[in-house]
Structures are given as structure tokens and as C-alpha cells.
Amino acid sequence: MIPRSKLQNKSLEELQALGKKYNIHPIGGYRNREAWINTLSRFPCKAIDQMKDGIGLHSPGLEAYRQLTVLLDLIGEPTSSQAALIRATHMGEWINDPDLRFYQEKLFELWRMRILLMEVKKIMLG
């Protein structure tokens, strides 16, 4: 982020452009240069403090990790036949029968959901 010393060298218009870039607004007047400097210099720390304090976007905690593990267990793992159909689907091969194709799509979506949830679980550990 831009240090306060560099912000102090910028014009009001430049500060306003930075505010527009980050979609933030000053606390105080829009034409108040010092308000822009304060807002622009403080927003990174403020955002991190809010996350740490559980405000806005924040880690759901260990219980969410446990529940995610339960959800993954409920979804299960594909059998060898299911894995083969998922591979075929991934390569763009589709069943001609409309009823079976519906279930092929559903199987593929369940697999995608499982992969995404596994990624979430991995990120939560980091």
C-alpha cells in the first residue's frame, strides 16, 4: 500500500482517484485532503483488524472445518465406474439418453462440488 508520506505528496485529485480505484470514501469531507490521506493510509490495517475481530469477511473457525469434513463424508468418493464417467464427461463425452444424461450432469456437478469443498478445506488449514 502507499505510505502516508507518499500520500502527503499527492494532490487532492490524485487522492480522490486512488479512493475511486479502491472504492473507498473518506471519513470527513470529500474535498478534505487530510481526510483522504487518513482513509487511504488506514484502510489496509482497518480491513485486517475487522477480519481478526470477526467483522465482515472472517474465518468461520474450527467448527466450520469439522462440519465441512462431515459434508465431504456425506458426499462420499466416486466409485471406479463413477470416476470413469466423470473423466468421460470432463472430456466432453455425453450419454445420448436424456434421462441418463440428467444423472450424468448431476454426478459431474457433485464431483465438482466435492473438489471445490476439498479446496475450501485445504485453504481453511492454511
Report how far apart the termini are. 24 Å
What is the ordering of alpha helices and beta strands?
A: HHHHHH
Low-confidence stretches are: none
Number of helices: 6
Integer count of domains: 2
Strand content: under 5%
Mean pLDDT across the residues is 95
Instruction: Give the number of DSSP strands.
Output: 0
Helices and strands: which structural class? mainly alpha
Q: Rg from C-alpha positions?
A: 24 Å
Helix content: 55-70%
Largest sheet properties: none
Q: Give the overall form.
A: elongated
Characteristic terms for this protein:
mainly alpha; about 0% strand; about 70% helix; single chain; about 130 residues
Structure, described:
- The model has no long low-confidence stretch (mean pLDDT 95).
- This protein has helices at 4-7, 12-22, 33-52, 62-75, 80-90, 98-125.
- The protein has 6 helices and no strands.
- By secondary structure, the chain is an all-alpha fold.
- 70% of the residues lie in helices and 0% in strands.
